[in-house]
Amino acid sequence: MTTELTTDRLLLRGWTEADREPFAALNADPAVMEHFPARMTRAESDGLIDRVSAGHAERGFGLWALEVRDTGRFIGFTGLAVPSFEAHFLPAVEIGWRLSKDAWGNGYATEAARAALAYGFGPAGLAEIVSFTATTNLPSQRVMQRIGMSHDEAGDFDHPRLEKGHRLERHVLYRITKAQWEADA
Q: Which of 22, 126, 135, 144 could bond 149 through an S-S bridge, CB–CB 3.0 to 4.6 Å?
């Protein structure tokens, strides 16, 4: 069973069958997927839900489905993941989010990410959490900054799953330690 997290406005919860259709629509939206190499097919989107759910069962954390508490509306995900590629800063646990376009601009990503950090540094017992994105993804970088993460310029990297010269190849790396998080709390 997936641990649920709540904030003033949001519920971070396990995935349900009802999430599959809106999640597939989110993953097929060109605006949402602008900073990813490609939009996802329905099968790819469903596969991601299956992998995320398995990760929750294995590690006790993962990417939670994100729901607006007042309406019950599914708006995407936020949570913790273990990257599966090779890079100089790995192994590590990353924090990430992906929200439907109609949910942007409400502070939901920041609010949910703060709850995920609290879980990561609390019950999950993590010492550090990282985040990374393409250099062009300024909205996500702003969320990283708002939740207290610091840009590790020396850690910036070319994503190994992207071709040399791909428009999204260069990634920025952000970090936060448990001590930094506690000092800001």
A: 144
Q: What are 60's two structure tokens?
A: 């006790």
AA letter at 45: S
Put simply, whether the predicted model's pTM sits higher than 0.90 gets the answer: yes
Cα 106 to Cα 10, 25, 64, 90, 157, distances in angstroms: 11, 20, 18, 32, 30
Domain coordinates in residue numbering, the chain: 5-184
Q: Which residue has the tokens 């508490």?
A: 69
CATH topology of domain 5-184: Aminopeptidase (3.40.630)
Distance between CA 29 and CA 24 in Å, rounded? 9
* 90-101 confidence digits (pLDDT tens): 999 999 999 999
Residue 2 — very low, low, confident or very high, per pLDDT cuts 50/70/90?
confident
Res. 1: pLDDT tops 80: no
* Residue 134: burial class (beta carbons within 10 Å; 0-12, 13-18, 19+): buried
Number of H helices, E strands in the chain: 5, 9
User: What are the backbone dihedrals phi and psi of residue 163, each rounded to the nearest 5 degrees, phi first?
Assistant: -65, 150
Pairing of strands 128-134, 10-13: unpaired
Question: 150 is written with which tokens?
Answer: 């610091």
